[in-house]
Hints:
The chain has helices at about 5-20, 30-35, 40-50, 75-80, 105-120, 125-130, and strands at about 55-60, 65. By secondary structure, the protein is mostly helical. α1 (about 5-20) packs across α3 (about 40-50), α2 packs across α3 (about 40-50) and α4 packs across α5. The longest helix has 19 residues, at about 105-120. The mean pLDDT is about 85. GO terms for molecular function: DNA-binding transcription factor activity.
Amino acid sequence: MFGKCQKDIRYSVRILIRLSLEEKPINSKAISELxxxxxxxxxxxxxxxxEANLVKTIRGKNGGYTLxxxxxxxxxxxxxxxxxxxxxxxxxxxxxxxxxxxKARKFWKWLNKEVFKLLSSTSLKDIIDGNFxxxxxxQ
Length: 139
């Protein structure tokens, strides 16, 4: 997730939130204007989101894009997978000479698993409602 696709994921979340807040289909021009992104980029992201079966198009005068599922059924992991993004914060090379006894590797492996669980359990609705704040407790 922290690689090349980070921007695509960020903007896709914004687009999906926009679609979930609209009561009717919204076209790519309106999406790009409302989200302050280029229409070309919005259309690229919408193409990938449609391929991932997260959005669908409605044809006609009042057509546009709409969500395929309810926001509580769309998870961040679904969006991340749309872009085939590596969700690891740190990935250790398999050919590392310290692979078998590295203490840091165990931590990174645990952290990556926690990120995966977080993305798998956080829905678009959670983000819209602000329900993600209770996932972390810092002392």
